[in-house]
Write a structure and sequence with these properties.
The chain is mainly alpha-helical. Helix content is 38%, strand content 8%. It has a domain of 158 residues. A hairpin with a 2-residue loop joins strand 3 and strand 4. It holds the Pfam family DUF547.
Length: 272
């Protein structure tokens, strides 16, 4: 068996065309089941296998996590924690890959986002498995503040990753990609986030969350929103107000005068 070491040319996917976003929005709101697109990685150049500084592709780095998600997460984001528990050692193997790949200074923005989103979600699953069976993440004492995961010389908590790393990257859609293991959270995607298709994945995660009427009810003149929009209101006002943000991802124009309320958050475990 022969293996070729290659590097993937990083593409700037910080923005998508208006037509592409519109198509994604139409698909999300008109099709009951949203299927996540498969990535296609184009090879830009070959490197020698002896190169000590070769960076793994996003797909290679996160393939263990991707396989676990495919095996234990349903299309609608429900998690088979019992199945995950039986394969916990594989999850721990992924943590070792994350640590080996921890060269943040060499990563571009999309690579950093994909790395930390995947890490956050994998660490959340690990936290649940340490205490499983449980009914809610809130059954765990200080679940977001425990520094349980070590990358190189630093111990991280979920709050460390969310607030001191991800939120500072000024990408509000991360709130629909990272998951708190609860019913009212955004669905855990059943594929790993990858830098090469990250913008499309974040757009799908956002439109899927907004179109889920159990979590948000969005009309032109009235909004019943997830408390995520209340807790992290500042993050959605980077380029205007909340209505401006929402109008990018719904198939109609929400009135600036629309009334709004925030829905009760269901912290029950998002278990299959």
């Amino acid at each position: 068996m022969f293996f070729l070491a290659f590097s993937c040319k990083s593409q700037d996917t910080s923005t998508t065309s208006k037509d592409n976003i519109s198509q994604i929005i139409r698909d999300t709101f008109t099709i009951i089941s949203v299927q996540n697109p498969k990535s296609h990685i184009s090879i830009d150049s070959f490197e020698t296998a002896t190169s000590k500084n070769r960076k793994q592709s996003s797909n290679e780095t996160h393939h263990i996590w991707n396989d676990l998600l495919k095996a234990y997460v349903s299309e609608d984001g429900q998690v088979d924690y019992s199945g995950f528990k039986k394969n916990h050692t594989k999850l721990l193997e992924y943590f070792k890959v994350l640590e080996d790949y921890f060269t943040e200074s060499q990563l571009n923005k999309n690579e950093k986002l994909a790395y930390w989103i995947n890490a956050y979600n994998a660490f959340t699953i690990d936290l649940i498995l340490r205490h499983y069976p449980i009914k809610s993440i809130k059954d765990i004492k200080n679940p977001w503040d425990q520094r349980l995961w070590k990358l190189k010389n630093t111990w991280y908590s979920l709050n460390d990753i969310e607030h001191t790393i991800l939120r500072k990257m000024q990408e509000p859609r991360i709130h629909f990609a990272i998951v708190c293991a609860s019913v009212s959270c955004p669905n855990l995607q059943n594929e790993a986030f990858q830098s090469s298709i990250l913008d499309k994945q974040l757009t799908i995660a956002t439109t899927s969350f907004l179109s889920d009427t159990s979590k948000n009810k969005i009309e032109k003149n009235h909004l019943e929103l997830s408390k995520i929009f209340q807790w992290f209101s500042k993050d959605f006002k980077q380029n205007g107000g909340l209505i401006d943000f929402l109008n990018q991802y719904v198939p109609f124009e929400i009135s600036e005068k629309a009334t709004k309320r925030f829905k009760t958050y269901n912290w029950n475990l998002n278990e299959l």
